[in-house]
């Protein structure tokens, strides 16, 4: 493994354990037995390191967003599972999101750009759900747009609520994906409910 990737891997591990604010270049260099100068050669500052981590994080899930010919509910479920796996792998990013956004402007710009792309992609999923007759017609104009926003809030802050509401016990099956589908269930047609049951019981 190249030094650059070793640095990235250790940074993710250290940030996950201690939080981004409490980890320095010196801490990361010491953990993988390289000099601070060597680390600085690859990443001149913490923001450069964060950008590399963010690009890797986005790459990990981007492929799942690609359009395929599978059932849209099944495809969407694969996406949710991939996002949940990403949240666990890069937990610091969600837990320290506000701090990152406020203090690292280049990362913040990348984040906002990605969120716009993700919004368009989820909009496409909702469109497919309606085209497949899996979703009922909107009762109120803009209802599904607001539903998308609610899902985005839940996805973005899922790890934070796990930390803050740690005394609120849920079963192992009640993960982020479970909660998203519970949001969607009331909007499903009979056909949509059958499609959901077909993949959810596998």
Uncertain stretches of 5 or more adjacent residues: none
Radius of gyration: 19 Å
Q: Strand share of the residues?
A: under 5%
By DSSP, the count of extended strands is 0
Mean pLDDT: 90
**Shape annotation:** elongated
Main β sheet profile: none
Count of DSSP H/I helices: 11
What percent of the residues sit in helical stretches (DSSP H or I)?
Answer: over 70%
Order of helices and strands: HHHHHHHHHHH
Structural class: mainly alpha
Query: Span between N and C termini?
Result: 37 Å
3D architecture notes:
With 202 residues, the protein is mainly α. The chain has helices at 3-18, 25-31, 36-42, 46-65, 72-89, 91-95, 97-103, 105-131, 143-164, 176-184, 190-200. The model has no long low-confidence stretch (mean pLDDT 90).
Core attributes:
single chain; mainly alpha
What topology does this entry show?
Layout: H1 3-18, H2 25-31, H3 36-42, H4 46-65, H5 72-89, H6 91-95, H7 97-103, H8 105-131, H9 143-164, H10 176-184, H11 190-200
Helix pairs in contact: 1-2, 2-3, 4-5, 4-8, 7-8, 8-9, 9-10
């Amino acid at each position: 493994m190249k030094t650059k990737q070793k640095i990235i891997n250790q940074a993710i591990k250290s940030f996950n354990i201690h939080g981004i604010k409490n980890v320095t270049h010196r801490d990361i260099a010491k953990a993988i037995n390289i000099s601070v100068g060597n680390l600085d050669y690859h990443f001149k500052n913490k923001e450069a390191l964060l950008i590399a981590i963010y690009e890797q994080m986005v790459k990990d899930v981007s492929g799942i967003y690609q359009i395929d010919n599978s059932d849209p509910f099944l495809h969407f479920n694969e996406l949710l599972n991939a996002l949940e796996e990403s949240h666990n792998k890069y937990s610091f990013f969600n837990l320290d999101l506000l701090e990152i956004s406020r203090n690292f402007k280049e990362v913040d710009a990348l984040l906002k750009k990605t969120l716009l792309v993700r919004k368009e992609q989820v909009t496409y999923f909702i469109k497919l759900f309606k085209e497949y007759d899996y979703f009922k017609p909107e009762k109120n104009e803009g209802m599904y747009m607001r539903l998308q926003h609610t899902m985005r809030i839940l996805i973005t802050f899922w790890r934070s609520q796990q930390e803050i509401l740690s005394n609120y016990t849920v079963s192992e099956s009640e993960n982020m994906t479970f909660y998203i589908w519970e949001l969607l269930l009331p909007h499903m047609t009979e056909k949509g409910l059958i499609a959901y049951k077909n993949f959810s019981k596998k």
